[in-house]
Specification:
The structure is a single chain. With about 375 residues, this protein is mainly α. It has one domain: Glycosyltransferase (Alpha/alpha barrel), CATH 1.50.10.10. Helix content is about 50%, strand content about 10%. The chain has a three-stranded antiparallel beta sheet. The protein has a three-stranded antiparallel beta sheet with strand order 4-5-6, with no helix packed on it. A hairpin with a 6-residue loop joins strand 5 and strand 6. Helix 2 packs antiparallel against helix 3, helix 2 runs parallel beside helix 14 and helix 12 runs antiparallel to helix 13. It starts with a helix and ends in an 8-residue tail after the last helix.
């Protein structure tokens, strides 16, 4: 992928997201279906940070004030959820506050952003199960002993909090969760399950569960993408080689499992795989994670991960993007949310849009990313 193509894609994204500001307005988007219109969900929903995160990213890359203006109030909106929806917030506060309060503070020095980001980090740390060594997932009764792969992308909030405060306890909790994940979630072939179940009282491991994947023994592609990306960040933040080696193992499995057009099906072990839906969000998350990994390995290994990321991104940009559909409020189509539940299949997903833009920002030298 040459420099001119990367620059062109960033220009397309700048124009597209500028249009999206007028289309989306004050909505908190998650899913856009066939009509191309994003929905509007409550601010406590786990995806509420990705639209403002996309705005902050585009502001940092382009310098355009319109992106900053549209993003500015979102951390305060989301903070109100701690009072208004205390049971609605869970492990995904990293997804909600890293791309809002934290990046706002890092880019502008805003003290409210710092305060809100640390409030979210304290909340996430408070979900740590000491006996099991994991951060609890959702708030439902059956999830008291559950940890999920998605949380590997939420623990960077704790790494940031240690950096911002000089207090290593946040990092210690993040590393304990990551170590539990390494022990129980990554299989020998590099595939990853979605949910780990523990006895919440004793901390004893019980089983792997399928969750949004096909089964407890399958390989949900977005879960594998969360894992490789989160493990790369864990290595960047700690220097611990066990995280780097695990990130490589999951990445090798992910790359080897891709179809000819390099965009993953929703579960790598669904059968027959050719008939299964794609998940462009998994491709975008993985591409950004692979670029992260490429920055962390020796020079003679770098192209393994960078080339794979560029192949995924080129396919997404040329086959699955809405450049020629200005009325469509999303960037990518053919995402899959929760296939086993029949929810949000063959749709646009705001986190797919976010990580697609994040990956191209990295390719264009994005200098101020948090991690």
């Amino acid at each position: 992928m040459d420099t001119a193509y990367k620059t062109d894609m960033m220009n397309k994204l700048t124009n597209k997201v500028e249009t999206m500001i007028g289309q989306i307005g004050d909505k908190s988007p998650h899913v856009a279906r066939e009509d191309g219109k994003y929905d509007d969900l409550a601010h406590n929903w786990w995806t509420s940070g990705f639209w403002p995160g996309l705005l902050w990213l585009m502001y940092d890359v382009s310098g355009k004030q319109s992106f900053k203006d549209a993003a500015w109030e979102w951390d305060a909106k989301l903070e109100r959820c701690f009072a208004e929806h205390p049971i609605g917030l869970h492990h995904d506060v990293g997804f909600q506050f890293l791309p809002t309060a934290v990046i706002k503070y890092e880019l502008t020095g805003d003290k409210e952003g710092l305060r809100i980001g640390l409030e979210a980090a304290n909340y996430l740390a408070g979900r740590f199960n000491l006996e099991g060594g994991f951060i609890r997932a959702w708030n439902t009764d059956n999830a008291v002993g559950w940890a999920i792969v998605d949380c590997m992308m939420n623990i960077p909030l704790l790494f940031w909090a240690s950096r911002a405060t000089g207090d290593p306890r946040y990092k210690h909790i993040a590393m304990k969760h990551a170590d539990t994940f390494l022990k129980y979630a990554i299989r020998d072939d590099g595939s990853v399950c979605h949910i780990l179940s523990f006895n919440p009282e004793s901390g004893e491991f019980i089983e792997q569960l399928g969750g949004q994947g096909l089964s407890g023994t399958s390989s949900w592609s977005r879960g594998n993408a969360w894992a490789l990306h989160g493990l790369a960040i864990a290595f960047r933040c700690t220097g611990e080689l066990r995280y780097l080696n695990a990130a490589k193992r999951v990445s090798h499995y992910f790359i080897a499992s891709l179809p000819d057009d390099h965009v993953p099906h929703w579960d790598f072990r669904a059968h027959p795989i050719e008939a299964e839906e794609r998940d462009t969000s998994a491709g975008a998350i993985a591409a950004s994670g692979l670029l992260e990994l490429a920055d962390l390995v020796p020079a003679d290994e770098r192209r393994i991960y960078a080339n794979a990321a560029e192949r995924i991104l080129h396919s997404l940009a040329e086959r699955y993007a809405t450049w020629d559909r200005p009325e469509h409020e999303a960037i990518l189509v053919e995402g899959t949310g929760h296939k086993p539940a029949g929810q949000n299949v063959n749709v646009s997903l705001i986190y797919g849009d976010y990580y697609f833009a994040e990956a191209f920002a990295k390719l264009n030298g994005w200098a101020h990313r948090i991690f």
